[in-house]
Amino acid sequence: MLSELERILVRTLGSGQTTLTVLSKEWLSDSFVRVTVDCGQLFSFTPAFPTLWLRLWFPAGDAFWHQRAFTIVGADEQRGRAHIEFTLHDGIASDWARAAEPGWTIQASLLGSKTPWGLHVDELATSTSKPIVLVGDMASLPAMNSLLGTLVTTPITAVVENRLASDAQVPVCASSRHQVIRCQHDSGPSVTDVAAQCVAQSGDSPRVWVALEAGKTRSLVKRLRADYGITKTDLCSLGYWKAVA
């Protein structure tokens, strides 16, 4: 939770502020919802790029706001629209998404979002020297899909960890140049084992993008560096969320 003072401080750090307006909502499974929004002034602050994310400010009582970062998916700059996708669980952001209706508005801040690996996606799309392995779960799937949807002709292996049986209903934005491997977190080989195997099979020095639960991200990154020699230059990693013990 952030106080109004902290919210003001975020604004003073140079973030672009905009208001998103809900246009429609689509349930992709019983635990995953896509909300289509009018993006207001967003694209006057920044062009759309894969993994572009916003901080959304969810009201939580009179004195506090609850902020969470969400990836913009399927951006249409000309129409000023995009999707925001929610993996539902207990919490203020999920409650908002469950109840959201056309006409609802929410404040958003653009602060800190940058392209993965510090490279332009067109450079990744034209580079044939290194394979790409993406590793994520349902929370980071929107960011993964934003990459896959742009790098349509680039050979990519995408490893996705499902948590619920219904997660298999949520589509991965894959083309014929992409291989998708889905794992179940509570059965079969672990996502970290599958990802490590994909890296080992991909050839010399692949680029690897990891966005799992924080502990799994740390474990996989350590393994990739120690066992496969993946350097910082070729590795983009983020603990997307943290499991509660």
From TrEMBL:
Signal peptide: none annotated. InterPro entries: FAD-bd_FR_type, FNR_nucleotide-bd, Riboflavin_synthase-like_b-brl, SIP_FAD-bd, SIP_fam, SIP_rossman_dom. Residues 15-123 form the FAD-binding FR-type domain. Gene3D superfamilies: Nucleotide-binding domain of ferredoxin-NADP reductase (FNR) module, Translation factors. One of its GO terms (molecular function) is oxidoreductase activity. Coiled coil: none annotated. Pfam families: FAD_binding_9, SIP. This is NADPH-dependent ferric siderophore reductase. It comes from Corynebacterium heidelbergense.
